[in-house]
Amino acid sequence: MSSNIEKLKKKFGAAIIDSHSFRGDDTIIIKKYSVLDVCRFLKEENDLDFNFMMDLTVVDYLNQKGHNERFEVVYHFYSLNHNHRIRVKAPVSEKDCTIDSIVPLWIGANWFEREAYDMYGIKFNNHPDLRRILLYEEFEGYPLRKDYPITKRQPLIGPKN
Hints:
Distance between the termini: 62 Å
Mean pLDDT: 93
Shape: globular
Number of strands: 7
Strand order of the largest sheet: 1-2-5-4-3
Largest sheet: 5 strands, mixed
Radius of gyration: 17 Å
Structural class: alpha/beta
Helix content: 10-25%
């Protein structure tokens, strides 16, 4: 186990569901309520210094065994100063499809979170401007969900008067 994961387990033991490290690629799975605290620690702790949020995405585990929740929000962070990276995963249920926004820590998360909202319907609490970014406002549904019907017709948008 890496020293980064050990530090996180020491600080957030109850919030960490699982962790692993493979070939220098660290991953922790956390409870969604702790995402802001864990991310703040990753960014502000001098030994960690994850100052670059590389990516944020969502995985839809619809009807897959081994996953208690339908969705998983996945974050990738990198430390420019220490040359190490970590992946943080947070399971999110379909019933309560929300998680806290990390925009207060990394302003660049803004558009990533909007894309996750637009494509999967994940709502980011306290996001400064959570609205569709790729699709028009009247678009119905979330096209990257595995149960989205590929033949679904969308309302037509005409010229505004």
